[in-house]
Write a structure and sequence with these properties.
alpha+beta; two-stranded antiparallel sheet; 5 helices; 2 strands; about 10% strand; extended
């Protein structure tokens, strides 16, 4: 299958079955692919935080959703769906690692202007979470 077809067929998922865990071999395969993503001069400015235990996922959502811990908080449909995922993989990025690498002489620049460096893995808008089904 060509990449273009894969991209056309992908679907975003916003509801999950919390009682259907991601098989360990599937998670290992996805994480292996993710760690092989391109990075500037092997700067490896990203890390993956994998949350598979319910208590860890609950703490993640409590810490990242304003008001979630308040009594009477009612999640909207989107949050109800994505917070039921049996596994969360959080991409952590270090812009400093990329800026340092792109400021090295072999890249043809010596400045650290973030506007001139490529975004690894394509574009992403901060604050817009994405969930893909594997």
């Amino acid at each position: 299958m060509e990449l273009g077809e894969v991209l056309r067929r992908r679907r975003m998922t916003r509801e999950f079955d919390p009682d259907r865990p991601v098989p360990p071999e599937v998670l290992a395969r996805v994480l292996d692919r993710a760690r092989r993503g391109p990075s500037a001069g092997f700067s490896q400015g990203t890390d993956l935080l994998v949350l598979t235990r319910p208590a860890d996922r609950d703490r993640w959502w409590a810490a990242t959703v304003p008001g979630r811990a308040d009594p009477g908080f009612v999640p909207d449909r989107w949050l109800r769906g994505v917070s039921s995922a049996p596994c969360l993989v959080v991409l952590l990025s270090s812009p400093e690692a990329y800026l340092d690498r792109y400021a090295e002489p072999d890249k043809g620049r010596t400045d650290r202007d973030a506007a001139t460096w490529p975004v690894p893995g394509g574009t992403w808008t901060p604050g817009w979470p994405r969930c893909w089904r594997c």
